[in-house]
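Q: Can I see a sequence and its folded structure?
A: Here is a first one.
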Amino acid sequence: MISSSDTLLLKKYQTVLAEADMGLWEWDFSTNSVHLDDGILKLYGLPPGSSPLTAAQLFELIHPEDRRLYFDKNEEVSAAGEFAPDSSIRIVTSTGQIKYLRNRSRQIRNTDGTVIGHMGLSWDVTSEVLLKEEKEKTDWQFQLMISLIESSTDLFGFSDKSGVPLYVNQVGHDVFGVQIGQKYFAEYVAKKDQKYIYEVVIPRLRANKGWEGEVLAFNPMTKEEIPIWLRIFSVKLGPTHSDIFYACSGSDLRKLKAIQNSLIMQSKMAALGEMAAEMAHEINNPLMIIQVKSQMLHERLTKGVVDAAKIISDLQLIEKNSHRIQKIVHSSKAISRNAELDPYSQVSILTLIDETFEIFQERFNKRKLKLELIVGDGINYNDMIEARGSEILQVFVNLLNNAYDAIRHQPEGWVQFELSKAVGNFYEIQVVDSGVKIPKGIADKMMEPFFTTKPTGQGTGLGLSISKQIIENHRGQLFYDSNAPHTRFVVTLQKKINA
């Protein structure tokens, strides 16, 4: 017989269990009923006083997918000794909530040793199970992410706050030669771009701002310089400046550039083909002058007629027209050649514009179109940019070619090149034409690769996208001014490129 003090102690014990989301239960085989204390009733979302339940009623509260497991576990308890191993099942409460319960069970025997029931303790482990599942899911996602990063053809890596690499994927090691714990990441950039990295990129990272752009990577193992589109950003792990690391990804641009260069050359050849007739005519005129003046000089000298002043005048005219032909040929060669591997050198910005005009002047003259250069105060042929001259010339040719196409049928069409000094260490070149403003739908897309409004066979659609990329590689900008009354493109170029 249980004493009143024992009953009180049991009640207190059950109250504590209920508060801890635990409870006691007893299954009586003789009546096939299950007695549940207040803690178990609370776990199942059942009202107080609803115990006992029939085994069938309790079975209905087990999650359908775990009912077989529940049956097997009870069979296991019956076959076991005094205790059976802990088991977990899902239940569906009266409100439809799914909970995970862990159970510890033992047999109940009568005086002759016959098993007459089971009893046990159950407690809520939902949070623990869900946390474990989330961790396993996170671990799986992390492993998948690492597998993708390691199998990627792009560079991935991160460094500590000082810029020393802490991790790099296989491509970063094999292609770009990055070594863990060795060198600063800026030392894996070619020397011509290192100053820009130190002066522009690193200050942005320290201000928790990202950066992306094209640079030349340097593989210290192969000594190879590789064009790469690099994306770098800082990641804060805590409140202080020391709680930070830098992550980066990069795409090898060699294959893309090979395809791009092939298309650029096709575009150049197409443009030169369109201008061939005008250029031939423009070369033919000075050639005729040279031929006529040469014949006249020959006749005078043969007859012994020597007029020194006249001879000097004719020779000067021959020299002038020879230089004219030389300029035309030089401009044609400059626009047609592949300048990707050319070193950066100091080039006169006015000279590049002059060469562009040499290519187009005859086309404009033939249609009686006006091509004008406006030069700001204080600018002359000594104003230099550090650039690949042929690439900048290509940009000017693309812009002027587009302007020519826009106005070629206008009776009084015009194009203006305006060169001025801009804010900071920059020149600004405005290319304005008398054509109508570009519709917004086209303006929004025209800088995208392969976008073109020209009919098939009249262009590749590479002009503006390639031009924009070239200017950005020179640390400048190319943009369309949608607020201008006419079609207006603006190019900015640094007076000196960091190298």
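Q: Show me another, different protein.
A: A second, unrelated one:
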Amino acid sequence: MLHVCAIAAVLLAQPSTAVDAPAPAPRVTLVRCGTLLAVPGQPPRTNCTLVISGDRVAQVLDGLDARPATGDSVNIREIDCRELFVLPGLIDCHVHLTFQQSADSRLRRVTEGPADAALRGVGYARATIEAGFTSVRDVGGPAEAIIPLRDAIQRGDIVGPRVITSGKSISVTGGHADPTNGYIGLAPPTPLEGVADGPDACRQAVRHQIKLGADLIKITATGGVLSVSTAGTAQHFTNEELEALVQTSHAMGRKVAAHAHGTDGINAALKAGCDSIEHATFQDAESIALFKSTGAYYVPTLLAGATVVENAQKPGYYHRAVVAKALLTGPAMTETFRRAHEAGVKIAFGTDAGIFDHGTNAREFQLMVDAGMPPARAIIAATVDAARLCGRFPGSSGSGEVGVLAPDAFADFIAVTSDPTKDVSVLRSITLVAKGGEVIIDRRTK
């Protein structure tokens, strides 16, 4: 046996005589842009060429016929957007890729498992990226479904946006993310299933989601609208529990997104150090001051508010415990958004997709504009500011890699037929979507 091993060791040590296959030629993509908004918030450039090397932006050159200095072996291809307006791929900071609301949603919660959710998510992910959203923050779905979905997209097994996810939302018993609300005979969930009471249980819940692969932590600081619970929309976690959740998350390098509707829960979550507040429906003057002093982001989800009001008026669509909350909470979101924007609160675009059909996320832009935000500022919220909130994506080193089309950023871009900084409605009709320089959908006239 030793003799055989010695021979094997000698053979392995010999230099290979096989001829190595030639390396593929590096690929350079030239996007000919009639108008390019490379960095939202800065003036757009006209008649220029976006140069992409591999899956990253290399440079922007003046002129529609400009060519970078490259060797003869470089594989060059061109994408003609001379008649189009090109801008970075959009980012939605609040989606649920493994879920989509329907009249039978409550039944599906107890008749389908994580594999069903992941498989449904394949289609939802495709619809999302085809709508121009090349990056998303998924805040609340079964870790056993959303994390494999995230990883499959990253590997290139399926088509979808770049995903940063929280895994399962963490809730108090009977709170918004307690999956047993409204059902009889189900075993009480544990911190390993995202339901925690007391600081120690909260720490365990956070650590378990991170163990499963969560990129951030989502907590339900208050009651919610669509949960079958009469616990209200005020504060749920105690101040001590909130501090445990945030401290544990930050110690393990994860940001915290806090679902919060009621004023007391919003303010308590901000004081505890949460990095973003989702919905923030009943924020007050103190909330605005806390947003500004802490630097936390407000993720408004106006489209979710409009959707639940519409659905609450359909007989039997929602459980009776949901209807009253929907009719109260939905209309308040628009006025809250207007006041927060006027006060200078940092706002990142987020829709709560899954409450409505995936792929229709861009309707949020019009609601933001109708509530007083200029179109150009709404685009910043869905690119630069959304990237800053997300902070990182798998395989990246900083927020500058998405949300802009600058050197070393991922070559994620969309093209539309007219200037969206003047009219955001055009973002509901995307002509071309590319992720990492690869065209996902192309609706240009042939």
